Amino acid sequence: MPPRIVRFARAVPLEILTRIRLPRTHGGRIALALAVVYLAWGSAYLAVHVALESFPPLLLSGLRNLIAGIGLLALATRRSFVWPTLVETRNAGIVGTMLVGFSSGLLAFGMRSVGTGTAAVMVATVPLFATVISAVAGRPIAKGEWVAVALGLLGIFILNRGDTSSSSTSGTIVILCAALFWAAGAHLASRLALPSDLFVSTALQIGLGGAISTLIAVAGGERVASLGFGPLFAFLYLMIIATMAAYVAYGFLIRHTSPIVASSCMYVNPIVAVGLGAMTLGEPVTGATLVSTVVILASVALSFWFDRRRAG
Q: Which spans are transmembrane here (predicted)?
């Protein structure tokens, strides 16, 4: 683990976390939620990179989501809510398997041979896969939306050509599959009946998805051989910040802002991930990385622009 990350982890006093207070204004809470989503999910790629030093990929994804789901459900029981039906619970398990079991698991697996910034840029193609899935499901797609898909594929090609790692091709394919499963899971979430309480729905999705991932990982022989301070800190960060806090913040944005604002993390996360990868891991920021980042983010922005026109 890089020394700079170790020094940062040991320098975070617990009293800072316990003194955090929510803003009193509605606008301040939206700004805080955006900051949490941007920083938590943008830095999650670095945390996964560090955690993989001790945790196998599928077990890492399963355990952190399982424990986070249990934690969120425990918090939810302290509020007044209606328990979900068996059908809603089943549907939450299906969506969670797609988003957590397949998507997060494949992302961690692919990042064993792909850099943090590269992985974040490729995950930004989720809206493009969502466009294709919508077309297959019967929604009419404008020509400009297909242009956005083509731009995204071009950006991926440039990114892969500029990646000098030995296993970049296989890692790229795995991470693209993770993005595809995330888009498919999000599509199912908009079609299936889920618990009306967003807090409970989120807890069930990540908890059940994490449970399935953990069972598959254990059955497949994945084990934690040795656990150092760095990977343990990264695991706790992923569980508490990148899962529990980020999902709650994202749910708040979904309820109190437009989908365009809530989904703006697609633009910011790759920038955060590339910057952190360069500063802490010494990952090179090549010309191909910069060009592909611009092309892919432009394709995502174009997809959102057409989606906004359609909604208007």
A: 30-52, 58-77, 89-111, 117-137, 144-162, 168-186, 198-220, 232-253, 260-279, 285-306
For the chain, the distance separating the N- and C-terminal CA atoms, rounded to the nearest angstrom, is: 48
Query: How far is Cα 226 from Cα 54, in angstroms, rounded to an integer?
Result: 6
Positions in the chain whose pLDDT score sits under 50: 5-6, 8-19
SS3 165: coil
Write the burial class of residue 20 (CB in 10 Å: 0-12 exposed, 13-18 middle, 19+ buried).
Answer: exposed
For 50-69, write each residue's pLDDT tens digit.
Answer: 999 999 988 999 999 999 99
pLDDT in tens, 173-191: 899 999 899 888 888 887 8
CB 116 within 8 A of CB 281: yes
The model's pTM is 0.77
Which amino acid is residue 231, in one-letter code? P
DSSP 213: H
**Alpha helix (H) residue ranges in 111-167:** 116-123, 126-136, 143-162
Q: Rounded to whole angstroms, how far apart are CA atoms 48 and 53?
A: 9
> Tokens representing 255?
């309820």
Residue with tokens 């196998």: 56
CB 68 within 8 A of CB 243: yes
